[in-house]
Amino acid sequence: MRSLKMAAWALGTAFVVAGCSNAPDEQALQAARDAAVAEYKAQEEVRLAENKKIASAFFAPGVTADDRYALLHDEYIQHNPVFKKAADEAGVNYKQGFKDMMTRNMANPPPAPDPKVPAPPQGNPLYQVLAEGDLVFIMRQQFRQDPTKEPGNFYEAFAWDTFRIKDGKLYEHWDGAVINPPAPAGARR
Question: Helices 94-107 & 81-90, crossing angle to 10 degrees?
Fold first, then answer.
């Protein structure tokens, strides 16, 4: 918003200056318009880069649940149906719901991988990061076991997250998560 005000100010100043002479100088007006647009675009690029940095921090190597929680805006809005449902059922806001789910997940980690089964290749959590306005889209590359083949046969898959940035924090979140049926009793997660 600040960059838009700056561009409007520069353009307005050019019109005032041009209006002070008897004959407006078209070249001066065009130069002022071009300068205002260039300034706006430069500031917008800086803002988009900062928004990408904020959203990418969510998936940074070594990031903890507390680090992720610290990235959330106080008025955080959640669209992931699993996290949203848990917060709604607990009667808490989505920021607190996120913290509660992360605490539960950390207390109940998945079983350790079987050392006899090959691990998947390393994916890329920031495979593609795109920003427009206050939205940042992140595509994450993963490798998953092909369920139709022997262990150790992986296929490439992608997941995505979109964040709205507000006041330098993650304000809103969407992803492709779904609510899965509960696992049968005694089944591994």
Answer: 100
Cα angle 78-81-82, degrees, rounded to a multiple of 5: 105
Sheet order of strands, 72-78 included: 72-78, 169-175, 154-166, 135-145, 124-132
Per-residue pLDDT tens over the stretch 27-73: 888 888 989 889 999 999 999 999 999 999 999 999 999 999 999 99
Angle, helix 2-20 to helix 26-56, in steps of 10 degrees: 170
CA 102 to each of CA 48, 53, 65: distance values in angstroms, whole numbers, following the listed order: 28, 22, 6
Nearest in space to 122 (alpha carbons), one of 61, 63, 67, 175: 61
Q: What is the pTM of this model?
A: 0.79
98: number of Cβ within 10 Å: 24
What CA–CA distance (Å, rounded) separates 96 from 101?
9
State the amino acid at position 66 in one-letter form: D
What is the amino acid identity at position 2? Answer: R
**What's the rounded Cα separation, in Å, for the pair 101 and 163?**
18
Place of tokens 């806001």: 93
Tokens representing residue 54 in the block = 């904020």
